[in-house]
Write a structure and sequence with these properties.
The chain has 14 helices and twelve strands. The chain is an alpha/beta fold and 401 residues long.
């Protein structure tokens, strides 16, 4: 008889650490604690008005009160194809686009479509918390490729080569990166893409932060830099980060038609269509210009520089300057083991707990991203809170002995 009421497959899933930290911070704030949360990866801006107005109009359209195609509204799939050509230079057909319930569903569905039990996926670490869970649910095995602050969190072809085996089927490539903010230069994108092509690997590339790059960094898309990979490449994206639409839950994947068809079949049984009102909002977003994005990017750039400077002023903290997304990923390894507020944290998880208790600041420890000894802090929050929160961390860690 089974000893557990929950299947081993689902029991192995860990709660999203980023959402857990954000929920705890919000609960403490609701209880009257002056907690500042650096956990959630979402813009602090409202969704632009023209997008909200498109959703309001859609609510009154009877055709949106019914089921629509599971793969997405035809007009939205076409608009995403046009937006992709406009923004990254990658020309695809609407039939190569699958609209999903947020980026996370796209992540799960692509691995479910590509992986058989035992297939390996190369995943540069630090990595977003959802990737290994989705790979595991699909029966795959995550093979981390460890990077650190010395390389700016960029994986080399040599590291990928050393980590690959005869079971390796997929390379997961993320630039700009969550959680590190690393952005691969175009030349390195080409080098990695050509290596993957020579080895017959699939490449799954997450481009959801494509418009959030700073300081002369350049976003480049793998299938554009390495066209011969197009038939073995799946691009993930969505409206959440670029248009401040995290709660609207609209993402997509773009790939060869057989992969898109397989993932659409899965989605037809899992969720049917994405909310039609949210799809109408996404249509307005991807069809519009990027002026609202430019305003947000300017604010993120300012906060990026402020947070990086303040973190590097804290003894024992080392933070490379992020070139994209909206996260800093500092090393706190030199602080671990020291006495702080009567405690001696031995891990970044213990240190994060201490900081929440003593400084009332919520950060996500590196254990959640596959690299203990680090923190992820989002700078997608107001300037005043950002400066106050990092100052509190600095004051507390200054006590380390």
């Amino acid at each position: 008889m089974p000893t557990s009421r929950i299947s081993a497959r689902v029991a192995a899933i860990s709660e999203s650490a980023t959402l857990a930290v954000d929920a705890k911070a919000k609960a403490l704030k609701a209880a009257g604690r002056p907690v500042i949360g650096f956990g959630a990866g979402e813009p602090d801006f409202p969704t632009p008005d023209y997008i909200v107005e498109a959703a309001q109009r859609a609510c009154a359209e009877p055709r949106f009160h019914k089921y629509t195609p599971a793969a997405g509204l035809p007009e939205l799939r076409q608009a995403i194809a046009a937006k992709t050509a406009r923004d990254s230079g990658y020309s695809v057909q609407a039939s190569q686009v699958l609209v999903t319930n947020g980026g996370k569903q796209a992540v799960y569905e692509v691995f479910a479509a590509l992986l058989d039990p035992g297939d390996e996926v190369l995943v540069p670490a630090p990595y977003w918390t959802t990737y290994p869970e989705s790979i595991g649910l699909a029966g795959g095995i995550t093979r981390p490729v460890l990077t650190d602050e010395s390389s700016g969190y960029l994986a080399s072809v040599g590291q990928l080569e050393a980590a690959s085996t005869e079971k390796t089927k997929v390379l997961l490539f993320v630039s700009p990166s969550n959680p590190t903010g690393a952005v691969y230069p175009p030349g390195q994108v080409r080098e990695i893409g050509r290596w993957a092509a020579e080895h017959g690997l699939w490449v799954v590339t997450d481009e959801i932060y494509e418009h959030l790059v700073y300081g002369g960094a350049t976003f480049s898309s793998v299938p554009v830099e390495v066209p011969e990979l197009a038939d073995r490449c799946v691009v993930l994206n969505g409206v959440a980060k670029t248009y401040a639409m995290t709660g609207w839950r609209v993402g997509w994947l773009i790939g060869p038609q057989d992969v898109v068809k397989a993932a659409a079949n899965l989605q037809s049984h899992a969720t049917s269509n994405v909310s039609n009102v949210a799809q109408a909002a996404a249509l307005a977003a991807v069809s519009g210009d990027l002026s609202a994005v430019a305003v947000m990017r300017e604010a993120f750039d300012r906060r990026r520089q402020t947070m990086t400077r303040m973190l590097n002023e804290i003894p024992g903290v080392v933070c490379p300057e992020p070139r994209g997304a909206f996260y800093c990923y500092p090393s706190v390894k030199a602080v671990l083991g020291k006495e702080i507020a009567g405690r001696r944290p031995r891990s970044s998880s213990e240190l994060a707990s201490l900081i929440l208790d003593e400084a009332e600041v919520a950060v996500v420890p590196g254990e959640a991203f596959g690299t203990p000894g680090y923190f992820r802090l989002s700078y997608a929050l107001g300037d005043a809170d950002l400066e106050e929160g990092v100052a509190r961390i600095g004051k507390l860690l200054a006590e380390a002995r």
